[in-house]
Model the fold of this input.
Amino acid sequence: MNPVYIAGAGMTRFGRSEWSLIRLAGEASLAALRHAQLGEIPVDGVVVANMGAARVNKQTALGSALVDQLALYPAMAEAVENGPASGASAFKVGCQAIASGMADVVLVTGVERMRVVNGLEGTDFVASLSQPEAEYIYGVTLPSLAGMFTRLLMDKYGIERKHLAMVAIKNHFNATKNPYAHIQQTVTMEGILTAPEAIVNNPPIAEPLHMFDCCPVSDGAASVVLVSESIAKKLRAPKVRVAGLGQATDTHAVQEREDPTDLKAVRLASEKAFDMAGLKPADVDVAELHDAFTILEIAESEAAGFFPRGEGHKALERGETALDGKLPINPSGGLKAKGHPVGATGVAHLVELTWQLRGEAEDRQIPAASVGYACNFGGFGNNVVATVLKREAE
Amino acid sequence: MSAPVHAAVTAGKCTSCGTVNYPKRLVCKKCKGESFETVAVGGVGKVLTYTDVYALAIDYETRYLRLAIVELEDGLRVTGQLLDENPKLGKRVKTTIGIVREPGDKPILGLQFVPA
Done:
């Protein structure tokens, strides 16, 4: 397999956007292309990640639409839909094109514009990824699956609501250092949990999860430019290599998992990614996890191999996952505060890691970061893509 | 205690290894067999986990839904709506059948749980 490098990364600010779906995708793509400084080198392929445009924006064939916006003809192009893991799946497809020798330069852009519909419609569009007969018909939504998962973990490991709040407080703080983040406002333990008015500030969404345990609904796009080794050598940019990629699936319905507290697909995808990279979880300097719900940051940090099972919330409490901790998790603000435009999220993870590994993450830069890990969590854990990036010496 | 079962909700019992596949699938998750007998799903069990969800999908006009995953006595786990004022982890419940969703004027029947 030929090596794959990320030559450029860019994104739009996440939040509510007046831009059209394709304008969002196009602006993120242009930012990534400018970052890559390709000069006269042509783009061979375009892969767009998106989950809901067919339903929410009444638009399909997004690969062709983005090629047209950017006048990249006759580049090959397609869109990838893999639920909330669409972003990293599209990234994987782009990597495969380069690893196989079929392409030298591939633009991977994730985009979602979901604030055009009301809350019920938006929640229902995401809930449509659940098992139709055994979950969806009962009113199962993603928050409900997360709520039931949270209750199991709290009971098993002694996780308390204060630990969930610590994830939110950390990620909101990190987001204030990220100009691309949807929400740039710090929150406190008093304001969301311990003060008498906390129940008003932070109402229940899916008990025991409350509003500040859940990511916002965001519009936005994120983009990376993948290149082959021969192209990477021609560019002056720092070399960020796609060191490892792993993907794993699990049962569609959560109820069928042998151990419903085990994020098995995260574990297997991460093991594959680390194996391919020839690296261990302990080698990672910075991680971007899929904290659509606060509990997921804790559970994924264990399943990825950073902490033993049942210990993630203790590492969090000790400050190990803070910006200045041993393993900073979600320096970008995470889905919790940076936002979660579903199809863009997996690509945005890799944008943040690329900036971190190039030393371009400004106020939230992790000093001398050279290995990054990302977990893009699809379904409710039934399709997970893990990625390991490594900064190579010049 | 006789276990209530409901023909409205069925699973596929693999004729090769006996594994009950719920939801149904074309290939048995245990032995890869492709032949199934249809069996009713239901009975007595215990609450494995539950939630009160306020972030609802379309088709619901209520303020929140109480959902649960129940582990039935035969080991099968099922998701459904919990009709219990005092839910608790591990509490004994039994399945019943009811309208679980009403898209337009087409009610869908499914599993609900009541204290056993």
Q: What stands out?
A: The longest strand of chain A covers residues 239-249. The interface with chain B takes residues 119-121, 123-124, 127, 131, 133-144, 147-152, 155, 203-209, 214, 251-256, 260 of chain A (CB under 8 Å). The domain at 4-118+217-234 of chain A is CATH 3.40.47.10 (Peroxisomal Thiolase; Chain A, domain 1).
